[in-house]
Amino acid sequence: MPSRPSSGRRRPATIAAVAVAGAVAASVWFTSGSASAGTLSGALYRDPNTQVVKWVAANPNDSRTPVIRDKIASQPQAHWLSSFNPSTVQSDVSTYIGAANAANRIPVLSVYEIPNRDCGGASAGGAPDFNQYQTWVSNFSRGLGDRTVIVILETDSIALQTCLSASELAARNQALTTATQTIKAGNANAKVYLDGGHSAWNSASEQANRLRAAGVQYADGFYTNVSNFQSTSSEASYGRSIISALAGAGVPGKRQIIDTSRNGGASGDWCADDNTDRRIGQYPTTNTGDANIDAYLWIKPPGEADGCGYAAGSFVPDLAYSLASSAPYPPSEPPTTAPPTTAPPSTPSTTPSPTPTRTPSPTPPSTPSPTTPPPATGACTAAYQTVNSWQGGFQGQVTVTAGTSAVNGWTVTWTLASGQSISQVWNGTLSVSGSTATVKNASWNGSLAARASTQFGFTANGSASNPTLTCTSP
């Protein structure tokens, strides 16, 4: 891989596990609600088939699993398409989009197919030529459906151009312009963002000029900080400068997306494979509180290697644990080892804050009371707790505990009180029949060792009550 200055970014090296095989299970996780700023509104889709989710499911007894599970696997991340597959991409994308739509969540797709991507570096590859690239993009666009989808188009394709001749650059810019227009024509509700580099790379004016040449006028905006570690405040300031420069050049109304997957610690050199000073940043959300910023996303999946110490795109548990170990837990989603001690807000917290503040506490609250007797051999029990309430709704938390023998899968059922309806569930899969609510384990938290526990949570409409729960295990 060619050497680059530390300010010269680096590609996300996410080249593994990109095609969707078969139907995708629709797990509902607490991510984000209606946005208070920007042009996006809604919760983001969490793919239940990511590398990190599969690792968690396969390693329930690993000491690193609780941290990786609760702080990384629980979060929505971009789904990368980096395998050149023009004959199957339409069906692959259609399957993925269908799963997200069924869950009523916004999918995030990262397209990484541009010819000569990464200038032949650790993530070299892409389409063989621009004609075949356009064929791939056309097939991709036909699988996007007609609902909101976020498309992160070709990381580093605009900020990294050192390997291109003038004619090659002109061809790339035309390809990006055409790709944007093709995607928009395929799905009018697709939100397309072009490569904005990051705040320690090209100047804002230079990046704005490059974006204009690549057709940002046809896109919704640009994204920054993919696979880099610049602070959110620095990226927001950089984005405002790009937006201002674009507006001054006759391209107004563009907005930014910031990758916050690994910017919670030190900035600097692009590669995190052998660094321990990196941290996950703000949790993914469309609720940014900034009219210039449409979303904070995890575009580069935390724990997947950059290519300098491990194979590019491979999942490395030690790296994931290092990124997450000292980070706060997701807002309104307490760790499975101990409930939070922060005071509940006076209004419903159905949307995580862009600045997480919840931290684990070793001291459990004094009020939880199990609604079922102690677990018996081979069985499981479930204990309910209301952790937050507001006018017209509440947030509940259920702790599932195995008996004296391990269990492999669990199901919790209860009867909803009059006027109650469940709006969201995380860490489990919900079904409702009449007034009976049923939550089954997610793919990663169904196997429990003897006496071990896990938790799921939900938000509901109506007044909080103390339900009688029934837990069963196959």
UniProtKB/TrEMBL annotation:
Residues 257-286, 327-379 are annotated as: Disordered. GO terms for molecular function: hydrolase activity, hydrolyzing O-glycosyl compounds; polysaccharide binding. InterPro entries: Beta_cellobiohydrolase (IPR016288), Beta_cellobiohydrolase_sf (IPR036434), CBD2 (IPR001919), CBM2/CBM3_carb-bd_dom_sf (IPR008965), CBM2_carb-bd_dom_sf (IPR012291), TAT_signal (IPR006311). It holds the Pfam family Glyco_hydro_6. SMART domains: CBD_II (SM00637). Keywords: Carbohydrate metabolism, Cellulose degradation, Glycosidase, Hydrolase, Polysaccharide degradation. GO terms for biological process: cellulose catabolic process. The keyword Hydrolase applies. Residues 373-474 form the CBM2 domain. Its EC number is 3.2.1.-. This is Glucanase.
